[in-house]
Amino acid sequence: MVKLLRYLKPHKYFALFTLLLAAVNSVLTLAFPLLMSQIINDGINKGDLSAIRYNGLVLLVCCVVAMFIMIANSYCSAKVSTGFAGELRADIFTKVESFSQGDIDKIGVSSLITRTTNDIRQIQDLVLMGLRSIITVPLMLVGGIIMAVWMDPGLSTVFLIVIPVIALLAWLIARKVIPYFDKIQKRVDRINLLLREKFSGIRVIRAFNRTEYEDGRFKEANDDLTGMVLHVERIFASLIPIATLLAFLLIIILLAVGYIQINRLTDPTEIADTIGDLQAFIIYLVFVVIAVGTAAAMFIMIPRANISAKRINAVLEMDPEMTVTPTEAEDAEDGVIEFRNVSFSYRDADGTETEVLRDVSFTAQPGQTTAIIGSTGSGKSTVLNLIPRFYDVTAGSVLVDGVDVREMDFATLYHKLGYIPQQSFLFSGTIADNLRYGKEDASDAELWTALDIAQARDFVERLPDGLESMVSQDGSNFSGGQKQRLCIARAIVKKAEFYLFDDSFSALDFITDSNLRHRIRNELSEATVLIVAQRVGTIIDADKIIVLDKGRIVGEGRHEDLLKTCGVYADIARSQLEGGGNE
Predict the structure, then answer these.
(1) Where in the chain is the domain with CATH 3.40.50.300?
(2) Which long-range contacts (CB under 8 A, 24 or more apart) does 255-262 make?
(3) Percentages helix, strand, coil for the chain, rounded to the nearest 5?
(4) Which residues, 6+ apart, have CB-to-CB distance to 78 below 8 Å?
(5) Which run of H or E residues covers position 555?
(6) Domain 337-578 maps to which CATH number in 1.10.4030.10, 3.40.190.10, 1.20.210.10, 3.40.50.300?
(7) Which residues contact residue 463 at a Cβ distance below 8 angstroms, ignoring those fewer than 6 apart?
């Protein structure tokens, strides 16, 4: 938790001003009972109107000043706590951007969302309450006790009962609920996971009529979280009522004791003074009880925020598995991608490794189309994922322009690449916003040219607003083929040195597929093009076809040659092309 306090540094002056306001407000609050006592003792009981006017006016001024101080204190503390949370959230977001896909897999997307939202909110609430209480509580506690002792040392012995009882109560509650805090955060992670699955897979759920099953899964997780939170909150809720009950019981006792003391007095002046002092004493007692109760609540909040802080620090202090080791090598092989004896294994959360690629070596030349094909699970997409360093190789090396990608700055590497993912993804906004994602200053003419190459111009022109037509979240208002073509156009706008197509033609009809490949060959003739595909028809004209089987290269060459020399490729081609079909 202490490590995260550095995020308060940009707001330190506001924080100090907030603490100063809290101190002034506490002093004014401690003066209220004394002023009221003077009004009762010197004014009401003695009939001194001037004392009532003077002390009443001072009390009124103090109340007005305290009101404005409380407003300012609330504003400043809220500004500091939200600014603190904003700085922290921005740092986590930036940190996650540096993670590889493997790093993200270790923590989990759902958990990252929870840590960026719910966990930060827990710490933000602690900072907010801390700014309002860290000065107020000690001043009210110590000041209340001092003033009460000054007024009646005998009655002040009640504090020897109040403070230990509330402290013991808070300790018992904290001991009971602290073990639940980590479990609650993990259950929030689970809720986020189920929500993301449900929203992303809503069509599949409906298609398989599994709505009730998914509702049951969510209900079970939600009830589990709700039950645990309710259990904790019920325990929490017992603190304030018990403290309040204790305070009122003590007030009743004080009133009884005061009644006995007043009955014993014979001097009217002493009786009048005792009544005012007793009222002030009771108010100071309430101040002390409130201060102790607030301190107890803080005592319970700190462990909860500390657990959230540990989860956040785990993200901020996590060393990305991918680092850059700069090299002095020159770009001696412009436009060349080379795999040298590459092996790769996915690592599960429990540390188990699953080998996907083994001893893969090939070269993709500029001005040529290199295609990769193979059965499902043969490692085709993994090959492409290693080029932009979504994952790092287990053995061997991947070279771009003659430089190992592990020795190349990320910005430099990504500037060279135009990547079209297997799962088409569009951002909410306009079509123009999406197309300019790789080149912010692209003109409308460049966008239309890219759409024309990607065979997307026709359907975009038919839209009412053309390039300014809105794209909903994840492009759900477009078909799969339209999304693929827009993603291809987005990469083409970038004018990259290398284009990586990860099965990006699967949703296209055969005519559109053929026209698109023809335009890519003509318009991107100087670029290095790598295509991962399932359909032989998509790669039949490629300059080089690499055939993968169980993570190994079992064939390399052109279509005609592979039909004769590679049994795996021949089987794939025969299953798709015989009978005049392309599937």
Answers:
(1) 337-578
(2) 255/282, 257/155
(3) 65, 10, 20
(4) 128
(5) strand 552-557
(6) 3.40.50.300
(7) 431, 469
Q: Answer yes or no: are the C-beta atoms of 451 and 489 closer than 8 Å.
A: yes
- To which residue do tokens 């033609």 refer? 505
Worst-scoring range by mean pLDDT, 112-116, 228-232, 274-278? 274-278
The angle subtended at Cα 52 by Cα 49 and Cα 55, nearest 5°, is 145
| Token pair belonging to 209 | 């009529």
The answer to whether residues 544 and 556 touch, using CB atoms and an 8 Å cutoff, is yes
Q: How far apart are CA 209 and CA 113, in angstroms?
A: 29
What type of residue sits at position 404?
D
Q: Produce one character per residue of 20-34: b if its CB has 16 or more CB atoms within 10 Å, e if not.
A: ebbebbbebbbbbbb
Estimate to the nearest angstrom the gap between the alpha carbon of 77 and the chain centroid.
23
290-335 pLDDT, tens digit each = 888 788 778 778 888 888 888 899 888 888 776 766 655 554 567 8
Burial 97-136 (b: 16+ CB within 10 A, else e): eebbeebeeebeebbbbbbbebbbebbbbbbbbbbbbebb
Q: What is the DSSP letter of 465?
A: T
Contact (Cβ atoms closer than 8 angstroms) between residue 213 and residue 207: no
On whether the 2-316 domain is CATH 1.20.1560.10, my answer is: yes
Q: In degrees rounded to 5, what are phi and psi of residue 123?
A: -70, -40
d(CA 122, CA 382): 39
